[in-house]
Design goal:
Number of strands: 15
Low-confidence stretches: 1-27
Strand content: 15-25%
Mean pLDDT: 91
Shape: globular
Number of helices: 8
Length: 303
């Protein structure tokens, strides 16, 4: 064996083993799916200024778009998702009411988003008014909009097919009462997130045979003792089964890499959240073998 060939094969072996794959399992038909995600961007269109005390020269939609495009060139099998709170936080929202945010996300070719509590800040009717500017769809399995103007704009889940891999994505939102003025969300009904999740998992995994099940959550990563009964992403992962990845929002939690949680059956669930304001982009890479067994690794990328 030539020295160059040996070095290349050794490097490939090391990289694969770090992902939990053996070299013998690496064949040309292994499928690679990349999940990119944001949360709690809060209308931050521009980068933070150079003199910002906490996030100098970080974030910005143009940089995020460039980063996303670079990753899409590496791997065409990409899903771009958002976990809510797209609105509220800069004068862009105060002036345009969310139009600019939806138009820019559409230009970046987001595939799907769920709805956060601040997305009601111009009222449910204000949210509805911006929907024509979004070319991507919205999912929420526990918000019932049937008696509001948002009826028909939100689905409980969506199934994607990426090169033969079926990916089911559903949304879960936080309780609005006490968090959002009733006048803002009107007749929107909040249903139990745990029960809604169990329904979604049954539909996506058992009925539709999805190879990958993702929850887009705006519940929050975790809560302290004073809110010990409040459902969070970590609790949702522990108390359910057949979810592979929970992409979270609401608590502005900065994670360098996904947290691994054991579910009801003792299997691993990845839980990730990338802070807020578009400072980071989350990336989770899934690798599927011939029998659809999978491994994954993830990280947070600074924008």
């Amino acid at each position: 064996m030539k020295r160059r060939d040996f070095i290349e094969k050794t490097a490939a072996s090391t990289a694969l083993l770090s992902l939990g794959l053996s070299l013998s399992s690496f064949k040309s038909d292994i499928q690679h799916v990349t999940i990119l995600h944001t949360n709690d961007v809060h209308s931050h269109i521009d980068p933070f200024p150079m003199d910002d005390p906490r996030n100098p020269n970080m974030g910005g939609v143009a940089r995020r778009a460039s980063l996303i495009e670079t990753i899409r060139q590496e791997n065409p099998n990409v899903l771009l998702l958002d976990a809510g709170d797209i609105f509220q936080g800069t004068p862009y929202f105060n002036y345009y009411g969310g139009e600019l945010e939806f138009k820019l996300m559409s230009m970046m070719k987001y595939d799907l988003s769920t709805i956060g509590n601040h997305d009601f800040d111009n009222g449910v009717d204000g949210l509805t008014a911006q929907m024509p500017h979004a070319t991507f769809e919205f999912v929420s399995a526990n918000y019932d909009f049937k008696n509001t103007t948002m009826d028909g704009f939100v689905k409980p889940f969506k199934i994607f097919n990426k090169n033969g891999i079926k990916i089911g994505v559903f949304g879960i939102g936080i309780e609005l009462e006490g968090l959002v003025d009733k006048r803002m969300y009107k007749e929107t009904v909040y249903n139990n997130p745990l029960e809604a999740t169990q329904d979604m998992v049954r539909i996506l995994k058992n009925e539709n045979k999805c190879d990958l099940v993702i929850c887009l959550s705006h519940l929050g990563y975790k809560y302290g003792k004073e809110d010990s009964n409040k459902i969070s992403d970590l609790k949702l992962a522990e108390q359910t089964k057949d979810i592979d990845l929970i992409i979270g929002g609401h608590t502005h939690t900065f994670l360098d890499k996904p947290t691994i949680v054991k579910n009801l059956e003792g299997k691993d669930v990845l839980v990730n959240q990338v802070g807020c304001y578009g400072i980071n982009l989350g990336r989770i890479d899934f690798y599927f073998d011939n029998d659809k067994s999978k491994s994954a690794n993830g990280k947070s990328i600074i924008v």
